[in-house]
Amino acid sequence: MVRFYGGRSHEYKERLFNNPDWNNEKEEEFFNNYKKSCIEKDSNKEKYQAKHYVLAYIFDCYAIEKKLPRGNKKELEKIGNQRIGKGRGNTFYKNFNLIVNKNLHSKEVLIDEVGESWREIILKLSENPEILENYLQSKKI
């Protein structure tokens, strides 16, 4: 039986066909170790939703008094691709349009949108966390 796991099929085939001691027990051990290593890699990486990146961008713009590119789909998708990752620009654009018209200077709205830890998240995702922190303090948010 040949299994394909994330490009490791070559290593698997090599072990299977070139090792006379290879057996089902070793096969299971190999795949269990591989799965465990994949889970460990994923667990170290914090995952945020697009709305977290959008809020960080909006507040970054507020903090440096930059005008938001409302209605400029191409520009927002470009920003989304830079902040979230390639191919995620449209998701960023859609979330931007859902969030931008809400009262973002209200703690209750922010908690409803992204949860209790909204402040820590946007500071972590901010391109200018020090400036953003000063802005949030000045607005008493």
Task: Describe the protein in words.
The protein has 8 helices and no strands. It has 141 residues and is mainly alpha-helical. It is elongated, with a radius of gyration of 22 Å. The mean pLDDT is 85.
Distance between the termini: 59 Å
Q: How would you classify the helix and strand content by structural class?
A: mainly alpha
Measured on Cα atoms, how large is the radius of gyration? 22 Å
Helix content: 55-70%
Instruction: Tell me the fraction of residues in β-strands, as a range.
Output: under 5%
SSE order in H/E notation?
Answer: HHHHHHHH
Q: What composes the largest sheet?
A: none
Mean pLDDT: 85
Which descriptor suits the 3D outline? elongated
SSE inventory with pairings:
Elements: H1 9-18, H2 24-44, H3 50-63, H4 73-83, H5 89-99, H6 107-114, H7 118-125, H8 129-138
Helix pairs in contact: 3-5, 3-7, 3-8, 4-5, 7-8
